[in-house]
UniProtKB/TrEMBL annotation:
Keyword Acetylation belongs to the record: no
Alphabetical list of SMART domains matching this protein: THUMP
Subcellular location: Cytoplasm
Annotated protein name in UniProt: THUMP domain-containing protein
Matching Gene3D superfamilies: 3.30.2130.30, Vaccinia Virus protein VP39 (3.40.50.150)
GO BP annotation list: tRNA methylation
Protein origin, superkingdom: Eukaryota
Length: 381
């Protein structure tokens, strides 16, 4: 009888509020139902190769979990903390975690046996490491103490070289109240840093763009339009992951140039234009999906401007989107003006709010509105 493949547990971080859509992608692409959502992260158990985990588009950073206990007895002093972290280090599944780490980084300088050998004479052959600690809750110790103590324990046991900057392995200790878990970082930088080569002051992260596109339920052959495209994160992500016809535009010539540069770099089949979003050049009932990151009124524009812009924009989108089937996904921090605009009779009669998701982006509380166009024909006011 063939041996069952080993399951590896991964932690993947995601923008707070979008955990549910990331979990959907994990189930779909990794053929697993063992996905758990937590605040700003999802935990995944899968036997799929780590490179398939890297193919996830909705998540930012990925870690291999090597220890997890949600009901630890919390240390009350430094001595108890040292004892606790010693027992945790002993219980860590270093072998499985390091196998995953070696696959992720194509590590070939030494084998797993050498890395885990406790012989100090082999230390020059071993990888360098550092420990990072994250702590939330009421404790008698801080994150720095955790990192120093666990780092010393690992160094004494396996004789890995300590390096805070030129490290090969990053061990991450997370303490949330009485929940202790340890991971190995599998990403050097966030996975949202992809595709774009030309950035604006408020460029949307690729992972957020992808999650918004999933929320729009984009289908094969759809015409997808970002009418306020900024740097083009949404049309570029759409072209990479869906077979659709993309249209992108902005009223600012510099934004149009950025989008053109990013589309050319990614060989994206996207028609890029410059226009006034309150007077779109489309015939009525012609666009399947509108999806955009609206001005927050913080770095660009103002909330006073949004009071006029949002209703005018929504009326144009109501006219141009396909009657009965069109979908719209809008991200904004200016929730007040968006809600008031959607409640205006000449807008609300065309739309059903399918979902409103609160997200936290760049320290700001924002919302993503998902709307579906009803069958009522558009009539100008």
């Amino acid at each position: 009888m063939a041996a069952m493949p080993e399951l590896t547990t991964y932690e993947a971080t995601v923008v707070t509020g979008l955990e549910w859509i990331a979990a959907e992608e994990c189930v779909e692409k990794l053929a697993t139902k063992k996905v758990t959502q937590s605040h700003g992260r999802v935990f995944i158990e899968t036997d799929r190769p780590v490179q398939q985990v890297f193919d996830l588009k909705s998540v930012d950073n990925i870690y291999a979990v090597i220890y997890d206990n949600a009901s630890e007895e919390v240390p009350k002093n430094a001595e108890e903390l040292s004892q606790k972290l010693t027992s945790i280090s002993t219980a860590c599944d270093w072998s499985r975690g390091l196998k995953t780490w070696m696959d992720a980084y194509n590590w070939t300088k030494c084998d797993l046996k050498t890395i885990l050998d406790t012989n100090a004479d082999l230390k020059d052959m071993k990888p360098a490491f550092r420990v990072t600690a994250n702590r939330t809750g009421d404790h008698k110790f801080n994150s720095h103490e955790c990192a120093v103590i666990l780092g010393a324990i690992i160094n004494d046991t396996y004789h890995w070289k300590v390096s805070m900057k030129e490290f090969d392995i990053e061990v991450v200790l997370n303490v949330r109240d009485n929940h202790f878990y340890v991971c190995l970082a599998l990403t050097r930088e966030s996975l949202h840093r992809r595709n774009l080569v030309c950035f604006g002051p408020t460029s949307l992260r690729a992972t957020i763009a992808y999650n918004m596109l999933r929320m729009a339920n984009v289908q094969l052959g759809d015409i997808v339009c970002d009418p306020m495209c900024g740097s083009g994160a949404i049309p570029v992500e759409c072209a990479h992951n869906w077979q659709t016809f993309g249209i992108a535009a902005d009223n600012h010539p510099v934004a149009v140039e950025r989008t053109q540069t990013n589309c050319r770099h990614n060989k994206s089949l996207t028609d890029v234009n410059q226009w006034d979003v309150t007077a779109l050049p489309f015939r009525s009932d012609s666009i399947d999906v509108f999806i955009t990151d609206l001005p927050f009124g913080k770095r660009l524009g103002s909330k006073h401007d949004n009071k006029t812009l949002y209703p005018a924009l929504l009326q144009q989108l109501s006219r141009c989107i396909r009657v009965g089937t069109g979908r719209m996904v809008l991200l904004t921090q200016d929730k007040r003006n968006m809600i008031q605009s959607l409640q205006k009779p000449y807008v609300s009669k065309y739309w059903k709010v399918v979902r409103k998701t609160f997200v936290r982006i760049g320290g700001l509380d924002a919302s993503i509105f998902v709307l579906k166009r009803n069958a009522l024909p558009f009539t100008p006011i």
